[in-house]
Amino acid sequence: MRKAKEPLYESDISTVRWLIYDVPGNVGWILYLVSLARCFSERPPFMEVPLVQAAAVVGVLPAAAMVIGIAELISERIQKLDRVLPRTRLYRGFGTLTWGGFGGVIVGLTALFTALRAEYSLEECKLLLLLAVGGALCALFAGLIFKTFRPLKSGERET
Question: How far apart are CA 18 and CA 148, in angstroms?
Fold first, then answer.
């Protein structure tokens, strides 16, 4: 039995606009991953707060989603699939990266507000702020690129 062809999606985003979205999106996932790693490796005092600790552990899930999304995008780039993608690859790349960023915002803000409520200063919680900002940048800019992809009508283009 022959498997049905997966629908294709194409983005007509300009190269300049792509770069404008891509650079801060990359800064976002890098900032998130580095900040989360530093929370675990440096063990700042706010990590003693149980809910902050739990949020950081849960924060590994969005981090994993970001890594999966980035790996997919690198694979697409190597295969020169930049602007025309099968639905699975689109969702595994930009969809997963957008979801990871959104989850990262929730984790970062939960940890930040919990630490602030536990009477740590904003200066002491700088890593948690960077965690939330990184997630937001990743979600926003991956989402903006994701949003530019439109389904191709069958027969419009073959890859």
Answer: 10
What pLDDT is recorded for position 118? 98
List, for residues 134-147, the tens digit of each pLDDT value: 999 999 999 999 99
Check pLDDT > 80 for residue 121: yes
User: pTM of this prediction?
Assistant: 0.91
Q: What is the 3-state secondary structure (H, E, C) of the chain?
A: CCCCCCCEEEECCCHHHHHHHHHHHHHHHHHHHHHHHHHHHHCCHHHHCHHHHHHHHHCHHHHHHHHHHHHHHHHHHHCCCCCEEEHHHHHHHHHHHHHHHHHHHHHHHHHHHHHHHCCCCCCCCHHHHHHHHHHHHHHHHHHHHHHCEEECCCCCCCC
